[in-house]
TrEMBL record:
It catalyses: adenine + H2O + H(+) = hypoxanthine + NH4(+). This is Adenine deaminase. Catalyzes the hydrolytic deamination of adenine to hypoxanthine. Plays an important role in the purine salvage pathway and in nitrogen catabolism. Belongs to the metallo-dependent hydrolases superfamily. Adenosine and AMP deaminases family. Adenine deaminase type 2 subfamily. InterPro entries: A_deaminase_dom, ADE, Ado/ade_deaminase, Metal_Hydrolase. It comes from Mesopusillimonas faecipullorum. Its cofactor is Zn(2+). The keyword Metal-binding applies. Its EC number is 3.5.4.2. It comes from the Bacteria. GO terms for molecular function: hydrolase activity.
Length: 330
């Protein structure tokens, strides 16, 4: 794509990224071997060939299975460092990474192992090439609020040790039937504790879930949010409040949130004046990292260079970086 050098050079951040979604099939196989885990696929290619999704749940089944190879601190480090090296190559200046501790603690992996591996990679990237990073601990919405509260309590003793990284919480996993209201208490507790708040809403779920993520959870940023378009009053609110949407075009295509990328509403939302950003979600599963998401979207929606620059600038202003750092990047 002729805009590749331009997009590579844009100062930009990634704000919607599940670190478990960066596990490439090759690394899944390598970690399985290292940990003596038998995978139900004969080869890397057979695993990759299984990545044919019809909806969010069909993806989540493979995503949680893939994360089952993560056992040691080194595993979490290796996964995270592989992603950060790609972001260095793509000209990314800052990342806000979600991780799903419940996926690991349920298998007997200690939450401190997860934090330690992620943090070692993130600090190394910061110290060696100046890529900054924050962590957003995400609660799995298909599990109970009680489970989320227990997870928060398990993580809180680690807060001091990771103050430079762990700045907020998120909400992910199967959206339908798991509305934001289900997590009102845990979000209230996180708000009291001073955490920044994001939540997935309006990916497969209705616009009402976006509304309740704002009203009940007091989310400051909405992950996906593309179905907000179904509610004009909500759209006006998102515009006036400048609530950012972290949109993931290739994810929406692979999970059949849209049938074709040229039907994606990102350009419409951008034209209406929403603070839209482009992100990769689970790049190892959806066929492209951040720059690929920019370019595929530009191609499908005929985005211009100035529009791509606006999207990159939005990704900086929508981040949780201090204002001084935002200004330095803009
Ligand atoms: N977990 C990982 N990726 C997700 C997505 N796109 N939606 C909800 N939960 C997720
Ligand atoms: Zn996501």
């Amino acid at each position: 794509h002729h805009l590749r050098p331009f997009v590579l050079g844009l100062p930009k951040t990634e704000l919607h990224l599940h670190i478990e979604g960066t596990l490439e099939p090759e690394l899944i196989f390598a970690l399985a071997e290292r940990n003596g885990i038998q995978l139900p696929y004969p080869s890397v290619q057979a695993l990759r060939d299984a990545y044919q999704f019809t909806d969010l749940q069909s993806f989540l089944d493979l995503y949680y299975a893939g994360a089952g190879v993560l056992i040691t601190e080194q595993d979490f480090y290796d996964m995270t460092m592989a992603y950060l090296l790609r972001m260095r190559a793509e000209g990314v200046r800052h990342v806000e990474i979600m991780f799903d501790p419940q996926t690991h603690t349920v298998r007997g992996v200690d939450i401190s192992t997860v934090f330690a591996g992620l943090a070692r990679a993130l600090r190394e990237a910061r110290d060696s090439w100046g890529l900054s990073a924050y962590l957003l601990l995400s609660f799995l919405r298909h599990l109970s609020e009680e489970d989320a509260l227990v997870t928060l309590e398990q993580a809180l003793p680690l807060r001091e040790a990771y103050l430079d990284l762990w700045i907020g919480v998120g909400l992910d996993s199967g959206e339908r039937g798991n509305p934001p209201e289900k997590f009102a208490r845990v979000y209230e507790r996180c708000r009291t504790l001073g955490f920044r708040l994001v939540a997935h809403a309006g990916e497969e779920g209705p616009a009402e879930y976006v509304r309740n993520a704002l009203d009940v959870l007091q989310a400051e940023r909405i992950d996906h949010g593309v179905r907000s378009e179904e509610d004009p009053a909500l759209l006006q609110r998102l515009i006036h409040q400048r609530t950012p949407l972290t949109v993931c075009p290739l994810s929406n295509l692979k999970l059949q949130v849209v049938d074709e990328l040229d039907q994606h509403n990102l350009a419409r939302l951008l034209r209406l004046g929403l603070c839209v950003t482009i992100n990769s979600d689970d790049p190892a599963y959806f066929g492209g990292y951040l720059v690929e998401n920019y370019l595929a979207t530009a191609q499908a929606l005929n985005l211009t260079a100035p529009q791509l620059a606006t999207l990159a600038r939005n990704s900086i202003s929508a981040s949780f970086l201090p204002d001084a750092r935002k200004l330095a990047l803009l």
